[in-house]
From TrEMBL:
Chain residues that bind NAD(+): G174, G175, G176, Y177, V178, A179, V180, E181, G265
SUPFAM superfamilies referenced in this protein's UniProt entry, alphabetically: FAD/NAD(P)-binding domain (SSF51905), FAD/NAD-linked reductases, dimerisation (C-terminal) domain (SSF55424)
Domain FAD/NAD(P)-binding: 7-317
Protein's name in the database: Pyruvate/2-oxoglutarate dehydrogenase complex dihydrolipoamide dehydrogenase (E3) component
Domain of life: Bacteria
Length: 460
């Protein structure tokens, strides 16, 4: 066994960890970046997450209708693979070219609070470090449904993204981010898609009217949506898998597909890390327990990104790195409790983005409210949506009637994933609803919808 002694060891090449590694190395720290797979330099987002999915969504929306769906998909998958290969190389080089960084391709586990053993094939390396950052991400959940693990036709998002062949008939299990994004995208590539969601509606954290509109859009795009569907088994039958489920009335039904995508959530990845050897605690969901500075139960060990049980977004992992960097090199004042108005965006077509509270959440606060709900098709002063041939969707704003404070905005509309950032910035910096209403925006843009939206607030 060979030894390496460093100031900082990062386990996992995720967004927070790699950014921290680079920042610390630029300050002269000796850093070890340990990544288990040479297919994962740069982490989930660029290899098997945000980047490949959004590249496919883009090509699904913009491909020539004259090219058959399977061929359009093959081309899109190939260019996506080229893109992720490029980014993987750039990410590797970003760290490997720094003098004080050693990138180690191997699987890390704790031997004691300051020591990691890293296995790569028959080789074992011992890494000792003053500071350790766990950035190991999350893995798809596969609940114990009979046949789910055994079926040769059930795939995770990672496995489906690795294929260049488009499914003919895709059954999607789940009603969250991955389920809706893949259902929308594969339908746009011409696959027959059935989405089975357990809850009474998709996207459980959004308002009823938003979900109804999103479901209408998905259905209009050719997705068969079944809610209240409890999957009871999966069985292979020749070229197809038969998914058995009970509907909301308890009636037994089946859905058939050549491919079944399990999109049932992602669980923090701690398996094999031997956190117990370092006295690092996990919670009931398997997430590493951290305080608001992202310190684990060992104060010199931090956990960033999906593994700490926080919101599973790349930009949250990135913000985690800012907190740890401040703790290591600054005043240690930055914490997770500073976060306000963190937006989210789900990339169906058109995208669904939100920042702040839903109307239902705002009502539960008991504050006096003004609410504006506008269908994009009715917003005559927002021609951008029609210019790009997509006037689908709706926008909502929820405002405190007494203070004019923006409590939340939801946008299911063209470019919502971009436009929502303007509201997030406004909310963080105390810009009021009236100011948003009277602001000057470029034309024709989706942002100018705020002139209309905030002019239509009514007591709720
Ligand atoms: C299909 C899909 C689409 C998504 N789309 C979006 C999106 O559009 N926008 C968005 O913000 N978020 C999106 N997400 C979520 C986002 O990808 C994650 O929140 C983010 O990538 C998590 O990053 P992380 O820093 O936690 O670590 P990750 O990027 O997950 O990196 C963890 C790394 O640790 C490595 N590792 C694990 N165990 C070990 C070990 N023992 N030793 C060494 N290495 C190890 C893994 O191989 C991996 O490379 C998506 C996720 C998925 C699955
Ligand atoms: N655009 C984005 O930012 C983006 C895109 C994809 C993923 N992500 C991140 O990755 C995370 C994981 O995505 P996801 O879609 O897998 O998770 P999710 O939490 O968004 O959705 C999981 C779905 O599975 C259902 N479910 C869970 N257990 C079940 C069971 N036993 N039986 C039936 N249904 C069950 C839930 O009701 C829910 O509908 C997301 O929460 C999100 O943070 C983000």
């Amino acid at each position: 066994m060979t030894d390496l002694d460093v100031d900082l060891a990062v386990i996992g090449f995720g967004k927070g960890g790699k950014t921290l590694a680079a920042a610390m190395a630029r300050r002269g720290a000796r850093v070890a970046m340990i990544e288990q797979s040479d297919r994962m330099y740069g982490g989930t987002c660029i290899n098997i997450g945000c980047v490949p999915t959004k590249a496919l969504v883009h090509d699904a929306e913009n491909g020539s209708p004259d090219v058959p769906g399977p061929e359009r998909y093959r081309r899109a998958a190939e260019r996506t693979d080229a893109l992720t290969t490029l980014l993987r190389g750039k990410n590797f080089a970003m760290l490997d070219t720094l003098d004080t960084v050693t990138v180690i391709t191997g699987t890390a586990a704790f031997a004691d609070p300051h020591t990691l053993t890293v296995r790569a094939g028959d080789d074992t390396l011992r890494v000792t470090a003053r500071t350790i950052v766990v950035n190991t991400g999350a893995d798809p959940e596969l609940p114990p449904v009979p046949g789910l693990r055994e079926s040769g036709r059930v795939v995770t998002s990672t496995e489906l993204l690795a294929r260049t062949e488009r499914p003919g008939e895709l059954v999607v299990l789940g009603g969250g981010y991955v389920a809706v994004e893949f259902a929308s995208m594969h339908a746009a590539f011409g696959a027959r898609v059935t989405l089975l969601a357990r809850g009474p509606r998709l996207l459980r954290s959004e308002d009823d009217d938003v979900v109804a509109t999103a479901t209408e859009i998905l259905t209009g795009a050719g997705v068969t949506v079944r809610t209240g569907a409890t999957v009871t088994g999966v069985e292979d039958d020749g070229d197809v898998a038969v998914v058995t489920y009970t509907d909301q009335d308890g009636v037994r039904r089946t859905a058939r597909g050549d491919t079944v995508l399990a999109a049932l959530g992602r669980r923090p990845h701690t398996a094999g890390l031997r956190l117990d050897a370092a006295g690092i605690e996990t919670d009931a969901r398997g997430a590493v327990v951290v305080d608001e500075h992202l310190r684990t139960t060992q104060p010199h060990v931090y956990a960033v990104g999906d593994v700490n049980g926080g919101p599973q977004y790349t930009y949250v992992s990135l913000d985690d790195h800012r907190i740890v960097l401040d703790d290591l090199t600054g005043e240690g004042r930055r914490t997770t409790t500073d976060r306000r108005a963190v937006a989210s965006a789900l990339f169906m077509t058109p995208p669904l983005a939100r920042v702040g509270l839903t109307e239902a959440e705002a009502r539960a606060t008991g504050r006096p409210l003004l609410v504006a709900t506008r269908r994009v098709a009715d917003m005559a002063t927002v021609p951008r949506a029609r210019i790009v041939h997509d006037p689908r969707g709706l926008m909502k704003a929820v405002v405190d009637a007494e203070t004019d404070e923006i409590l939340g905005v939801t946008m299911l509309s063209h470019d919502a994933h971009e436009t929502i950032n303007t509201v997030a910035l406004a909310m963080r910096h105390g810009v009021t609803a009236s100011e948003m209403r009277d602001e000057i925006y470029t034309h024709p843009s989706m942002t100018e919808a705020f002139n209309d939206l905030f002019a239509n607030l009514r007591p709720a």
